[in-house]
Known about the structure:
This protein is mainly α. It is built from 20 helices and two strands. The chain has helices at residues 2-27, 45-89, 104-126, 131-142, 147-177, 180-202, 205-213, 217-241, 248-268, 272-297, 299-306, 315-320, 323-366, 377-383, 386-394, 397-412, 421-457, 463-491, 503-522, 529-558; strands spanning 375-376, 458-459. It has a two-stranded parallel sheet. α17 (421-457) runs antiparallel to α20 and α18 runs parallel beside α20. The longest helix has 45 residues, at 45-89.
Amino acid sequence: MKGYLNFFxxxxxxxxxxxxxxxxxxxxxxxxxxxxxSPKFYAAYDLKTGLTVILKWLKLPVIVFNKxxxxxxTWGVSAIxxxxxxxxxxxxxxxxxxxxxxxxxxxxxxxxxxxxxxxFWQMDFIVAxxxxxxxxxxxxxxxxxxxxxxxxxxxxxxxxxxSLAYVLPFLILGLGYRHVFVxxxxxxxxRLLLLNLSxxxxxxxxWIKVIDFLHGKFxxxxxxxxxxxxxxAITVYCTVVVSMQWTGVLTWISLVLAILxxxxxxxxxxxxxxxxxIFIKKAYTEEVFAKLGNQNMxxxxxxxxxxxxxxxxxxxxxxxxxxxxxxxxLLFKRYSKIFKKKLFYRLAAxxxxxxxxxxxxxxxxxxxxxxxxxxSEKDVYVFLPSLFVVLYLTSLSKEIVSIYYLRCDKAMLxxxxxxxxxxxxxxxxxxxxxxxxxxxxxxxxxxxxxxTIIFLxxxxxxxxxxxxxxxxxxxxxxxFSFHELFLYYILQPFDKEGLSKxxxxxFINGAFYLFCIQNYNFQTLFSNKVLYVAVVSIVxxxxxxxxxxxxxxxxxxxxxxx
Length: 562
């Protein structure tokens, strides 16, 4: 027990120190405020010790809150489903059913769903593909600890801390339904039993062959799909159909089984074969996430595009441009056919939408039902925020930036002449212009569809409204052409291997994605939709202006290889 406690304290100390050092490191990289933060914090051991103690104590209430929220959600789902099922079953009877939260079935359903949920997530453990397991292996590797002993300690430690965190919410649940003993003991015992059974299973030689069999992509899909359907089927059967009862006898049986399996699991531990499978799954997962990250950055599409590049007539470009402008225009010229092909598919979809609108109008015209569909000016303004989502999905800016980095900047940034202020600002202006021109047909196609709908189905739409729609379209095009390029020049998040090394870049891109998705909901904060469209358009223009000024002042210092 003392060994586990010392291990827990050391791990908590390391995690807190790593968090503080990492936080300080990234804060020092934040523009504007980063230079004012002193690096002496790394040597301030007394301060870091105090903050570490605070973080240790804050960790417990955070865990308790997290576990309490899980139990609350489980109880809420159980209560809602139980009442819905009760109402459906009593539909033929003349009874006035109201929502019941004190029914004992709700308590049993909560325990059952919690148990099955733990069982479902334990499946990642037995196939050696658990994210927490990967972190624990990394920890053991970094500090040269025994993999087997470290995994056992981590899982036992996690079981104890999470079980203590579950005591409070399940105690409240037990008091509410007068099943305190069952409510407190069953969740802890069942989690211990599942962990023990999992450790016993993965120690068997035949199970290693099962892990290898399930490693294939096709088998992984089948296993995941079958497991998900089986989970829902068992959940429905053990709640709605049978309504499993968690009695005191069942609790004692579970407790005895958990104790007996603990001896067996402790004796077996983790085998070297299972540890090897963890490393294999970890490497595979990292490869998948790397590919996914490249896709998000546009690298995958850029790599594929570079394989299809064709020779072009470039004499005119050599005669017209020189220096950095020559490189930019050469690169754009060589990829123009690929860009046009991608643009063609996007425009084809917009043309198809245009034809659907025309055919729909003609159908209503011939059936004398044109009055059944009308579009007011308010309807148009309510729809306009959706352009953010459409352009986020169809804009070519992300891929353009990736191609510039992979096929030009990655090599050229090693040369001093390419990092001069004049060369950087000139390349930024050229690339912004090219990106804007390439994205314009997409925005133009969207606006044509909008104006067509207004012309055919519009009702009392003013010229000022049409002008605002046009201004909004131009502003959104400017935003999506500028944003990726702006972040690229200011943060330059990629290293020589093409990997993103800047969390601020990832955070801003994530926030931008969230804004694009939630933009439709943000307009509900404005009672006047015209005002919202106007405000967003003006904010976009101001963002581009401020961003352009920032590029002129900061890009010569930030546009470097990491």
